[in-house]
Write a structure and sequence with these properties.
The chain is of the alpha+beta class. The protein has helices at residues 2-10, 13-27, 36-71, 78-99, 121-141, 170-174, 262-293, 328-332, 337-349; strands spanning 110-116, 144-152, 158-166, 179-186, 195-206, 221-226, 242-247, 252-256, 304-309, 315-318, 324-325. Helix 2 (13-27) packs antiparallel against helix 3 and helix 3 (36-71) packs antiparallel against helix 4 (78-99).
Length: 350
């Protein structure tokens, strides 16, 4: 299996096996559990590495077994060998893809914010379409998605929304969606039915795990409470359960209003704030690294990444990978995996 051996080398499985031994020695120390947050982070890394390495070792053994059987030149097992070779190939493809999701937070949950661009009701409607698209994608993958904050547009649609998506590799896949999404269509809100272009910004952050909390000092934040917005009647909260947190040093504002209690909204808002501050620190580190290298690398943040054209033809095209689909309705219904896979392979090529 030359391709399997290539993956084994490129992704340094042998070094990961040595890392497992190092973490196991660390976990065996008498004082290992004195700091629970650090020990939990170590155990999570250890379990993740074990699963990865053991999976590759098992696949390599299957390949060796199949090769041994093939050398027997027995016609009676030819069909079984073909079936096994196909199964090994399929698992190799899947494991190769998962190895592209090897970032420190790729395996964890994701936080997303969607913001309508300029353009009034058309932009808010487009933002609502994107919100539905990501919720459908999460549903199809069996992930748990919750809208924790949503601000309706003045004439319809969604002005802003924040959602949490919980599932294995949620962040690893969804980081491909970060950037500006562009829609071209005949506007249903234009009496003359003219073609309009709308934009929406998608932000994605990892949900931080144990042992990597961002320190937020109480004096650095301002917390306001207000009544949750609703559709009227029983949906309007009579108590001030919604939370708005302002991080004074950076000016970052986070709101959460869809949980049932003020305490839950506060916890969720702080979780989102920590993720935003973590991303801010990562951006600073990347800029410092670029300055040291003496190179200018164009930032993708906020750039137009994908166009969804509904008129005069039907096409969804990713401008980074050149991957495209003519089945626009399927994409808007959440069929995003092909675009996400293309982005992962594009990043691996970089």
């Amino acid at each position: 299996m030359p391709r399997s051996r290539s993956c084994w080398s490129v992704f340094d499985i042998a070094n990961k096996a040595r890392k497992i031994e190092e973490l196991e020695r660390q976990a065996s120390q008498p004082d290992f559990w004195n700091d629970s947050s650090v020990s939990q982070a170590v155990m999570k890394e250890l379990n993740d590495l074990r699963g990865l390495v053991e999976g590759w070792q098992a696949l390599a053994q299957r390949g060796r077994d199949a090769a041994d059987l093939a050398e027997m030149d027995d016609a009676s097992i030819e069909a079984d060998l073909t079936t096994e070779a196909t199964a090994i190939q399929a698992e190799l493809d899947q494991r190769e893809l998962l190895l592209m999701l090897s970032g420190p937070h790729d395996r964890g949950n994701a936080l997303m914010s969607l913001h309508a661009g300029a353009g009034g009701v058309d932009a808010a409607d487009w933002n609502g379409m994107l919100l539905r698209m990501f919720l459908r994608w999460a549903e199809q993958r069996g992930f748990k998605a919750d809208v924790v904050d949503q601000v309706e547009g003045e004439e319809g649609g969604v002005k802003n929304a924040t959602i949490t998506i919980a599932g294995e590799y949620a962040y690893g896949y969804l980081r491909s969606e970060r950037g500006v999404h562009r829609l071209v269509r005949l506007s249903p809100f234009d009496a003359a039915h003219r073609r309009h272009t709308s934009f929406a910004l998608v932000e994605v952050w990892p949900e931080l795990g144990e042992g990597e909390e961002i320190d937020i000092k109480p004096q650095e934040i301002k917390i306001d409470t207000y009544k949750s917005a609703g559709a009227g009647g029983q949906n309007v909260q009579k108590n001030e359960t919604a939370i708005r947190i302002t991080h004074l040093p950076t000016g970052i504002v986070v709101t959460c209003q869809n949980e049932r209690s003020q305490t839950q909204n506060r916890e969720t808002a702080l979780k989102i704030l920590r993720a935003k501050l973590f991303e801010l620190e990562e951006e600073k580190r990347q800029k410092e690294l670029q300055n040291l290298k003496g190179e200018h690398i164009k930032a993708e943040w906020g750039s137009q990444i994908r166009s969804y054209v509904l008129h005069p033809y039907q096409l969804v095209k990713d401008h980074r990978t050149e991957h495209e689909s003519g089945n626009t309705q399927a994409v808007l219904d959440g069929r995003l995996d092909d675009f996400m896979d293309a982005y992962l392979r594009y990043r691996l090529g970089e």
